[in-house]
Structures are given as C-alpha cells and as structure tokens.
Write a structure and sequence with these properties.
The structure holds two protein chains of two kinds. Chain A is of the alpha/beta class. Chain A has helices at 3-6, 12-20, 34-41, 58-68, 80-85, 88-96, 127-134, 145-155, 183-193, and strands at residues 27-30, 48-50, 74-79, 101-107, 110-111, 117-118, 138-142, 163-168. In chain A, helix 2 (12-20) packs parallel to helix 8. The model of chain A is unreliable at 1-6 (pLDDT under 50). In chain B, strands 2-1-3-4-6-5 form a six-stranded parallel beta sheet, sandwiched between helices. The chains are: A alpha/beta, B alpha/beta.
Chain lengths: 199, 174
Amino acid sequence: MTLAAKSDGLDRRHAVRELLRARGESLVVSGLGSPTYDTFAAGDHDGNMYLWGAMGGAALVGLGLALAQPRRPVLVITGDGEELMGLGGLATIAVKKPANLTLVVLDNGRYGETGGQESHTALGVDLHRVAAAIGFPSAVELREISQVADYGREIAKAAGGPRYASIRIAPGSPPRALPARDGVYLKNRFRAHLGFRVE
Amino acid sequence: MTNDPAWPREIFQALKQADVRQASYVPDAGHGRLIELLQADPEIQATPLTTEEEGVALAAGAWLGGQRAVLLLQSSGVGNCINMLSLAASCRFPLLMLVTMRGEWAEFNPWQIPMGRATPDVLESMGVTAVRVDAPEDAGEVVAAAAAAAFAGDQAMAVLLSQRLIGRKQWEAR
C-alpha cells in the first residue's frame, strides 16, 4: 500500500499560493470543495471561477474557456476525487490539445469534503501517468514547493500545453475559506473581467 | 429515409446565424450530417466527447470565455447529463442542446425506450426547457428560436428532434 508515501505531502494552501503567485493573465477555474477554498484563500480575483458543484466538470469548463480565449493561460485547479469522476475528459482535452490549458490536481488521495475516505489515487492509480498515456504532451508530478513555484511561472505563458500536474498534498483540511457561492454573480464577474458586457 | 435531407443544413445555418463557435458531440447517426458540417467549418471548434455531461461543462466554459456553444447528443445521453445540468441552473449559463430521440418511433431496440421516454421529464426537472421538432421543415426555425432563448435569455434549452424526423434506424444488412 502506498498510503505512507502519500502522507508527507505539501501544505495545500501553501502550494496553491505558490502556484498562483505569478499568475499574470491567467484565468482560473477551481473544482468543488477544498480546491475552491484553496484558490480563494490564495487571493480572490475576478478572473477566478469557483465551482461549488458540477463534480467531474472542472477540467471541461477549463477546456471550453481555453478554446474561447486561446491567448490567455487557463488553469484548472481541482482535486483527485473531482478529476476521477471525469476521467474521460482527459481524453477530450488530449484530442483538442489547447496549448494554453493546464490542469492541476491537488492529490491527497482523499475525499476531503466527505470525511477523508480514500480515493483511487490512494489505492494505486497515478493520475499523471494516466494523463501522459492519454496524450497530454506534458504530465508531471510535483512534490517540492520549489517545483510548484517554478511550474506556476511556466504555465503563465499560455503555450506548451495542454499540461497536467499532480501536486502531492498532505491530507487534512485547513480552516475553510469560502468564496461567493452565487453562480450568477461569479459568472458575470468573470465575464466582466474579460470585457464582456453584463446585461 | 432520404440520403441527404435538408434539415441538418437548416439547423447548421441557424447555428451559424446565432454565432455559435463551439460544438461538442457524442457521435450519433441522427446527428451525422450536422456533425460533418460543424467539423468542416473553420470558424467552429468541434469537440468530440467521451460522455455527454462533458459538453454541459464545456459550454459553460465557452460562455465564460465569450463564445456560444451547442451540444449534440442522443436522448440516452440526457441521462448522463443530469447532475452537470446543475451548473447551467446554478449559474444561469446559456445552454443549447440538440437531442436526437430514440425509443419512440419504430424503435427496434427496447433498451433505448426507458431513457427516451424519460427524456422530456428529466430535462424539465433539471430546469431545461424542451421543445420538440416533428416536421423537418420546422427544424431550422425551432433551433433558431431555442438559440435566441438560450443566448439572449440566459436559458437552458433542448431541441428534441423526433425519431420520426430522423428516420428509422436501418437494421438490415447494409
């Protein structure tokens, strides 16, 4: 069993803060649960779309956005459980090959919102190897905070993707940091950030 | 069944008129011609999906980025979309689904019948307005009206293309 190896992960809030420190023009979609809280805790931003549901859909929201905004870096930050629910979406992204899209999975091998039950990644599934096999030209696993900071600078360039990264984080939930939950508000705020009129 | 009916092109023209720039689909015989037209258009990003709910999320992302999207699916795929339709409902995202119906007209495969029968109710239960097309000459106009309601009115819309319109599936040797 690989559980012992997975318990020594990074602090999730620290990792997401470093990932976003040099975000530049990046547009960010966060998956429901802790990745949404982590993204908000790193600093609220009009170019963040926080998902509170739609489990399995974060990466595909990112794909639609990346295709619509090919000059902007698009970063999806989600969890292992959320990504496992939409694994077929990795194939869809690999087929479209958006150079400006990066999918980052915060992997603690746990369903944090529901009590910390083990996910498939705690039981032997390596998502970055799945992403590589399915056709992502770049698929890595990051274990050191310096790697995360370097990666954050790299993905702000809107080229070289689609990229996939698993960041190994420690189990456990930091204090909740809750962004707005109103979807219409979040949608309109995001579109206004891109200069679209909200009517 | 005619080999090249006019209605797929009329739907395509309605989508072009509505400035649809992204189209996603799970392959389907009834949508075959329309998918070819969408794939061939250089102004449209055509995305094949592994399962239909991906297209609901994809359309939301497209709208966030300022583009209009359409999702092509079969009635069986409506069932796959149920929870993802929460995204359209919660954020009031425009959504335009074109659903080819199975299980209702000279259906050969009984396994298609339960989801075909449930499709209108499932859509309505999740906040999607379903409008039906039975006559081929209505297809373009109904899709244009649904696109207007979706993209100008921020509604989730599904156009149900009846199995009679699409034609009987050919089960005999080809």
